[in-house]
Amino acid sequence: MASHRRPKQPSRTRVTVLTTAAAAAVALSANAANAAPSEKLNKDEVKAKVDKLYEQAEQATEKYNGAKEKQQKLQKDISTIQDDVARGQEELNKLRDGLGSLATAQYRSGGIDASVQLFLSSNPDDYLDKASTLDQLSSQQVDALRKIQDKQRELAQERAEATEKLKDLAATRTELGSKKQEVQGKLAAAQKLLNTLTAEEKQQLAQEQQRANRSSTERVDLGDKTPPASGRASAAFSAAQSQIGKPYVYGATGPSSFDCSGLTSWAYAQAGVSIPRTSEAQANIGTRIGSVGDLKVGDLVFFYGDLHHVGLYAGNGQVLHAPHTGAVVRYEAMGNMPFQFGVRV
Asked: What burial class does residue 32 get, using C-beta atoms within 10 Å of its C-beta: 0-12 exposed, 13-18 middle, 19+ buried?
């Protein structure tokens, strides 16, 4: 017999849940349809943001350069100390061999007394501290023991210094890696922004940069014929001029590419003058000059509050420098950046 029972109706609770869910879905669809699309930056806005990222990358670059320079110095110091320790250990071994020979001679002449037996000890300090024992030793024996004492202390100090420098080196390597990641992160963010541009906008931006590079690499009109600060400053400036058109690359010191302080340190090296690697360190050498009007060709000129950018004064309010990623070594008006002071090397 066919069943005539009525089909089970959904509960009131279930109906309410389904109705609410359906209403929410409709509302979400309506909101999605009415939502304004994310605002796309135009070419000039992208360029402004990219320029800011390039500036931040240069800040990190100078910190990276400082950490790299410190790492190289620590490695050199550690190598020197380790060589000193090795030589010192050889000297110590010879001194101990000498004591052994002295003890052997005394044994052959009639045996080794209690005092001579201590000659072969690796730590004679306690023994020498006892005046009564000193009376039992010859002046030759006392001198030999004291030499061992001095050499042991010297080696202990050198080993302790090496240990501290190795710890410092490990921390510096960590900092170096961190700054490198920061630079690369800023450059990647800049590239990501550039990738949002259309092909036509990218081409326009590239053409603008090419025009800026081309016009700025041509010899500027010095106008006031500013003299060089010195013969070596003139030689450094001429060396920098020979690199006009070379690309900016973070951490580079030439001659195929440069960053800002890489160019200035390289240029002065060509003039036979060694200056520090980073812009911050370069700011602390020579004579400081506060006014643009007092600058001479070849003076170092520093920009931004943290002094993360440096170039060479070219005269007539111009700087010769390696500006930033995407640019080349070129001339530029100093008014384009916040000038802080100059330094005469």
From this structure: exposed
**Distance separating alpha carbons of residues 305 and 328, to the nearest angstrom:** 23
pLDDT digits (tens, 9 = 90+) for 113-158: 545 455 445 555 555 554 444 445 567 677 778 888 888 898 989 9
Any catalytic annotation for residue 321? yes
Q: Is 302 exposed, middle or buried (0-12, 13-18, 19+ CB in 10 A)?
A: buried
Determine if the pTM surpasses 0.70. Answer: no
What span, in angstroms and rounded, lies between the C-alpha atoms of 298 and 319?
A: 9
Are 312 and 320 a contacting pair, CB within 8 Å? yes
Active site includes 308?
no
Which residue has tokens 């160019």?
263
Asked about 4 being catalytic, the answer comes back as no
- Tokens for 241, please give them: 């001029």
Taken as a whole, the chain contains a residue count of 345
